[in-house]
Specification:
mainly beta, 1 helix, four-stranded antiparallel beta sheet, ten-stranded antiparallel beta sheet, about 60% strand
Length: about 300
């Protein structure tokens, strides 16, 4: 299990007062968002390979080989996201124009759980041979390969996107200035941020990367050794290769309004966390950054 903190990229803004003079400053940079993540990963890999070599005659040698590989990986990413804005109080920008501290009011809080599965299979078969007779020699190689599967990328392949319910507000303060063992992040809200019933479904994100690749390759070489003065041998060969590649990144992003008919069990016009079928939020992963001093949200959620 791994834990990390991210900014989610940076935004250039002209709407933040970075020096306290009451006037917004141009060309400042602030984080897009502040994120803490816990990755839980389980992986299974099966690999089978074999080689067979035989010589049916004194002149002919053949080699057969094959490999099969199957990778299954399950990654659960528990995220605590704060989507920032330009509604700042007491912002501080350094000499490079980076907003290193401040309070931002009315930010969006998104506790998310990503499901990122991987299922990849590949098969490779090959045959090579050599035939010799007198001055002549023929060598050949034939191969076939196939790969197929799906792989969830970061932020995919499935997640419920949830936000605080109407009337629940959050202010975020952060401090990236030197001197802190860990960047401070504090949240002020008018609701219990650790209670899943205070959140509602915004949308469902479902995406994946699907691949299917097939390749064929063949090679034949002929060599004839001669006694023709400086010409020691004559060679000729043939090559063939064909590769079919297919990759697709299907995505589905239905908003909560499109799902009300199925998910809004009490008819109040929203889908709350307890109305998401088969999902239970708990704290099985413990806390963010255990043992690290500093001010930041510690509780993380997991879904089952």
């Amino acid at each position: 299990m791994a834990i990390r903190s991210e900014s989610g990229g940076w935004t250039r803004t002209n709407a933040i007062d970075g020096n306290g003079d009451g006037i917004d400053d141009a060309n400042l940079f602030r984080p897009n968002r502040l994120m803490a993540r816990i990755y839980d990963r389980a992986e299974q890999r099966l690999t089978v390979n074999g080689t067979m070599q035989f010589k049916p005659t004194d002149n002919l040698e053949l080699i057969l080989d094959g490999t099969f590989n199957h990778l299954k990986r399950q990654r659960n990413s528990v995220n605590y996201q704060i989507l920032l804005n330009n509604n700042d109080v007491g912002a501080v920008a350094n000499q490079n124009g980076t907003v290193v501290a401040g309070t931002f009011r009315g930010v969006t809080l998104r506790p998310l759980i990503y499901d990122e599965p991987t299922d990849l299979k590949s098969t490779t078969l090959g045959m090579s041979g050599k035939w010799e007779e007198g001055r002549g020699q023929v060598t050949f190689d034939l191969s076939y390969s196939k790969g197929k599967g799906s792989d969830g990328f970061p932020g995919a392949s499935f997640t419920y996107v949830i936000v605080p319910r109407a009337g629940r507000t959050v202010d975020a303060s952060y401090d990236f200035r030197p001197g802190n063992a860990f960047p401070n992040l504090s949240l002020t809200s008018n609701f219990n941020r650790d209670d899943p019933t205070n959140y509602q479904l915004l949308s469902v994100f479902d995406a994946d990367t699907n691949t299917s690749n097939v390749g064929y390759e063949g090679r034949v070489d002929w060599t004839y050794r001669t006694d023709w003065g400086p010409l020691s041998s004559v060679q000729a060969g043939f090559r063939y290769e064909k590769v079919d590649l297919f990759t697709a990144d299907p995505q589905n992003l239905p908003v909560a309004a499109a799902l009300l008919g199925r998910g809004d069990r009490n008819g109040d016009g929203i889908i709350t966390i307890d109305e998401l079928g088969g999902v239970t939020y708990d704290q099985r992963y413990g806390t963010f950054y255990p043992g690290v001093p500093g001010e930041f949200p510690a509780i993380c959620w997991a879904a089952a």
